């Protein structure tokens, strides 16, 4: 009899656990959605993803695009541990930790499409692989890098015009 009365409490315990998890996750999901709306993310496939990817095309040769990307990264203050390899067209670096994350791994893959067109693929993901929510931090990294690369591209094109 005592065993039967003890077992009747388990459905109540399971219900409490489910409610506690739901209450705990609701604010996290809301914050994730809020930050990504604030950053202007429109890709529904990556709405809740922490690994973000962006592709930029630059109308400049590979060597100039590589230099442009290096200048853009140098202009941003969040980069550290930069590893670059121009022969493979990659630049890897980490960001420092913030209140929203422990840091991110960022990879730029630069490839020549033709003699005057270069494709840059930017990938940003958390340093800690088990991260479930990044509160829009990786999307923000892509936005900042895109803006910095576009500014460095303008500077490169202006210098080219001044030389001619």
Q: Your description of this structure?
A:
This protein is α+β, with helices and mostly antiparallel strands. It has one domain (10-163): 2-Layer Sandwich (Alpha-D-Glucose-1,6-Bisphosphate, Chain A, domain 4). Helix content is 47%, strand content 25%. It has a five-stranded antiparallel β-sheet, with helices on one face. A hairpin with a 4-residue loop joins strand 2 and strand 3 (90-95). Helix 3 packs across helix 4 (137-163). It is elongated and about 80 Å long.
**Secondary-structure element order, N to C:** HHEHEEEEH
Q: What gross morphology would you assign?
A: elongated
Briefly note the structural class of the backbone: alpha+beta
Strand content: 25-35%
Uncertain spans, ≥5 residues at pLDDT below 50?
1-7
Task: Please list the strands of the largest sheet in the order they lie side by side.
Answer: 1-5-4-3-2
């Amino acid at each position: 009899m005592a065993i039967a009365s003890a077992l009747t409490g388990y459905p109540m315990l399971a219900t409490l656990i489910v409610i506690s998890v739901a209450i705990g996750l609701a604010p996290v999901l809301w914050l994730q959605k809020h930050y990504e709306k604030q950053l202007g993310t429109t890709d529904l496939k990556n709405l809740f993803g922490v690994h973000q990817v962006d592709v930029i095309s630059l109308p400049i040769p590979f060597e100039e695009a590589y230099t442009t990307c290096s200048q853009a990264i140098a202009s941003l203050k969040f980069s550290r541990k930069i590893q670059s390899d121009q022969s493979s067209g990659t630049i890897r670096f980490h960001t420092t930790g913030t209140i929203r994350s422990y840091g991110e791994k960022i990879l730029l893959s630069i490839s020549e499409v033709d003699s005057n067109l270069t494709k840059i693929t930017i990938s940003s993901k958390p340093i800690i692989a088990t991260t479930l929510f990044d509160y829009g931090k990786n999307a923000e990294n892509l936005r900042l890098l895109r803006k910095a690369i576009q500014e460095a591209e303008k500077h490169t094109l202006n210098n080219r015009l001044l030389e001619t």
